[in-house]
Specification:
Helix content: 25-40%
Bound molecules: S-adenosylmethionine
CATH architecture: 3-Layer(aba) Sandwich
CATH class: Alpha Beta
Number of strands: 7
Strand content: 15-25%
CATH superfamily: Vaccinia Virus protein VP39
Structural class: alpha/beta
Distance between the termini: 85 Å
Order of helices and strands: HHHEHEHEEHEHEE
Strand order of the largest sheet: 3-2-1-4-5-7-6
Number of helices: 7
CATH topology: Rossmann fold
């Protein structure tokens, strides 16, 4: 009993230290834990790949950014949903995660892989109809910079889907995610789930309609 208690306390201490350390430097989920990332969470519907992809309302020909793709849990079903005329850019900071995606690609030809840190300005501009950030945001030291880069990478009117779950040591509350997303320029679109396990959708607002007449100039 005492050993179990010590183990529980040690786990909590490691989780809290990892979480706090991630605010200062990049401490991503280690590649050796990727098997755990690949498990579809049996407790939270809003964290399951099928649910997240369904809510994205993907259509053939769409372009999707899987930001912090890990071992490709979302990359593969998203690539199937957008078909051969669409594409998925799977981005991760760790080569080992991208290697796992490569192993799973099979005969899908619409997946591109990019190793970079979100926020470093490596993403193409106004290129995507949808972006996914599934249990990634809390691992990024500068969350604001990452969200601004994702904002720029989306086409006007496009949708960002953020998923968080409390079992993740890097869990971000709905309030934090919403505040960061608003700062980056997003507006709230939809929310699924509850305070401890959710998927939230945000929109990059469409460009304002071009004024053809100057209201100040009656001429
Ligand atoms: C917990 S995993 C989630 C993977 C995937 N989104 C999923 O839900 O199955 C978080 C992933 O984000 C990646 N990551 C962390 N910081 C990153 C950054 N700054 N830029 C890109 N990827 C990052 C990690 O390497 C890891 O693969």
């Amino acid at each position: 009993m005492k050993i179990l208690l010590i183990l529980a306390v040690a786990t909590i201490v490691v989780f809290l230290a990892w979480r706090a350390g991630s605010r200062r430097r990049s401490l991503p989920c280690p590649v050796w834990l990727r098997w755990m990332v690949e498990l579809d969470n049996p407790f939270a519907r809003t964290n399951r790949a099928a649910f997240i992809v369904e809510k994205l309302e993907l259509a053939p020909g769409m372009s999707v950014l899987d930001a912090g793709c890990g071992p490709g849990r979302l990359t593969i079903p998203a690539a199937r949903a957008v078909g051969t005329s669409g594409r998925v850019l799977a981005v991760d900071i760790q080569v080992g995660m991208l290697d796992r995606v490569r192993e799973k690609v099979g005969d899908l030809r619409n997946i591109e892989l990019l190793q970079c840190a979100l926020g470093d300005g490596k993403l193409p501009v106004q290129a995507f109809d949808r972006a996914l950030l599934v249990t990634v945001l809390g691992e990024i030291p500068d969350r604001g910079a990452a969200l601004r880069e994702v904002f720029e990478a989306l086409k006007p009117g496009a949708v960002l889907s953020v998923t968080e779950i409390v079992f993740d040591p890097h869990f971000q509350t709905r309030g934090t995610v919403t505040a960061l997303a608003r700062e980056a320029g997003f507006t709230e679109k939809a929310f699924f789930g509850n305070a401890i396990a959710y998927t939230a959708h945000f929109t990059r607002p469409a460009l304002p309609t071009r004024m053809t007449e100057d209201p100040e100039d009656p001429a």
